[in-house]
Amino acid sequence: MNDATVQAWILDEDAAADRLDRVLARLQGDLSRSRLQALIRDGQVSVDGVPVLDPNRKVAGGARLALTVPPPVPAEPAGEAMALNVVYEDEDVIVIDKPPGLVVHPAAGHDSGTLVNALIAHCGESLSGIGGVRRPGIVHRLDKDTSGLLVVAKNDLAHQALAAQFADHGRTGPLERAYLALVWGVPERRRGTVEAALARSTHNREKIVVVGEDRGRYAITHYEVLEGLPPAQPIASLVRCELETGRTHQIRVHMAHLGHPLLGDPTYGSGFKTKANRLSEPQRAALRALSRQALHAAILGFEHPRSGKLLRFESPLPADMAALLQALRAES
């Protein structure tokens, strides 16, 4: 059974000549330009009845265009039934409160048991083709051991619109992302900005390091100290972080660069392990129970890709971070 859809248009006679992919992007509206380019190269677009394979081909006024959109093919990752904390869902997007320990996307060493596997099973036929594949559209990620809010696109329209908002990082648009972190020590400035380029380490490919501007990707993190822990003689602090860029491990690396790595971070906070000796036994026990970096994506706001409505979600600290915060508030 062929569930392909065919759309056709006749351009106005006085329309200015323009590239085929640009013309289709204006006419079609739902598919991303990269998806349209792929369909053109695949022979799914005709001009005046003749297939055209070049997205750069100029088309003039009066041309008859036809676009065939094949049915989505099954996703490569298999669906796996897993419990998900769904905060919001409609035909276009799904917002998940991700627990720590869950990998977002299949990769080397994690070809199953990921959020994508769970979403394929959860969403089923409500997923439409993103890039021609029936899969959830991942527009941003959280590290495996970072908990919190994540929005995923369910179709091309949503994927295109959300990707544009995340690329802007809220500089001019409605995107809002805020994280809560527990860090060692108290930054000297209660509010500040870390602006430092990041790149993958040449010695350890699993690690991100701060480098010169000409050697890495531009990265900016804004932070605010919310609370010293414990209040009288703080050894740690609760910090709110907002991203102006979205690089791998950005908050973890930037706070370590500032001299205040995240509690429990085995990659960027290993040099602060002796700090734990200054904690009380209940505090040390709570830190051991955390067994991950103390980072939580607490706030997520964005413009709905179809309705334009502003959506905003908040997630409370998960039990492990909440228990550590409560223990740190108590005097040793």
Q: Helicity, in percent?
A: 10-25%
Structural class: alpha+beta
Radius of gyration: 24 Å
Assembly level: single chain
Task: Specify the CATH homologous superfamily of the largest domain.
Answer: Pseudouridine synthase
Q: Give the H and E element order.
A: EEHHEEEEEEEHEEEEHEEEEEEHHEEH
Principal-axes geometry comes out as elongated
Q: Major sheet, described briefly?
A: 10 strands, mixed
Overall strand count: 21
How would you describe this structure to a colleague?
The chain has 332 residues and is of the alpha+beta class. The protein has 3 domains: 5-69, Roll (Structural Genomics Hypothetical 15.5 Kd Protein In mrcA-pckA Intergenic Region, Chain A); 73-168, Pseudouridine synthase (2-Layer Sandwich), CATH 3.30.2350; 178-302 and 307-329, Pseudouridine synthase, CATH 3.30.2350. It is 21% helix and 30% strand. The chain has helices spanning 20-28, 33-41, 115-123, 156-168, 250-257, 281-290, 319-329; strands at 5-10, 18-19, 45-47, 50-51, 58-59, 64-69, 73-74, 86-89, 93-98, 129-130, 133-134, 137-138, 147-153, 176-184, 191-195, 197-200, 208-211, 220-229, 236-243, 295-303, 310-314. The strands form 5 sheets. Strands 8, 9, 12, 13, 14, 15, 18, 19, 20 and 21 form a 10-stranded mixed sheet that branches. Strands 1-6-3-4 form a 4-stranded antiparallel sheet. A hairpin with a 3-residue loop joins strand 8 and strand 9 (93-98). Helix 1 (20-28) crosses helix 2 and helix 6 runs antiparallel to helix 7 (319-329). Residues 18-78 form the RNA-binding S4 domain. GO terms for molecular function: 23S rRNA pseudouridine(1911/1915/1917) synthase activity; RNA binding. Its EC number is 5.4.99.-.
